[in-house]
Every structure is written in structure tokens, then in C-alpha cells.
Amino acid sequence: MDDYSQGQMIALGFIFLVLPIVAVGARLWAKRLGRKGTTLDDYLIIGALALSIACCITQLVAAFDGQLGQHQVVGADGQPILDDPRFLIYEKVHDR
Questions:
Q1: What are phi and psi of 92, to 5 degrees?
Q2: What is the pLDDT, as a whole number, of residue 55?
Q3: Global confidence as pTM
Q4: Which of 2, 42, 56, 65 could be bridged to 17 by S-S, CB 3.0 to 4.6 A?
Q5: Which position has the higher pLDDT, 1 or 36?
Q6: Are 63 and 93 in contact (CB under 8 A)?
Q7: Cβ(13)–Cβ(59) below 8 Å
């Protein structure tokens, strides 16, 4: 029984792409409404948001074009096919 699927990996990638953007946007909007200046922690959270977006994009590429959330393709002998293009994409994304 699978605990996850390709669709779930794609959904998680989009959810964790949108949630941090909304949270950081709400934080910056609240600081603007409160007439607070931009401080070092605001710049750090924007940097963390950029890293979060990069991680989500990596997950989405691995789910759409790679085999994240899918079973690995095996040959007739039951051994994994390591030159499958989707597996190679997953390995390239995974190694970063």
C-alpha cells in the first residue's frame, strides 16, 4: 500500500509554495499598516521565502518530470531500469 502518490506530491508542492508567500505577504502588509519600518528580520524572512520557493520548485519538477511519488520502472527480470528518462530527471533533481 502506497503512503503517497504523484498527485499528493504535486499538491504538497503547490500548498507549500502558496502558504509561505501568503504568510510573508501578510506579515509585510501588517508591518506597513502599523507603520513599522523594514528591519533585518524582514530581509531574513524574504531570503527564507526564496529558499522555500526553490525547494517547492525542486519538488514539483521531481513530481512532474521525475518519478517522485511513483514506483520505479522495472524490467522483465525485476531489476530497476536505471536509464529511464524520468528516473534520470529525478536523480538530477535529487542530487542538487
A1: -65, -45
A2: 93
A3: 0.73
A4: 56
A5: 36
A6: no
A7: yes
Residue 29's contacts (CB-CB under 8 Å, 6 or more residues apart) are: none
Closest of 11, 86, 93, 85 to residue 55, by C-alpha: 93
The grid cell for 77 is: 527480470
Q: How far apart are CA 55 and CA 34, in angstroms?
A: 31
Cα gap 4→11, rounded to integer Å: 11
Residue 79 one-letter amino acid:
Q
- 1 pairs with which residues across the strands? none
Backbone angles phi, psi at 79, to 5 degrees: -90, 145
CB 58 within 8 A of CB 82: no
- Specify the pLDDT at position 95: 66
Q: How far apart are CA 61 and CA 6, in angstroms?
A: 11
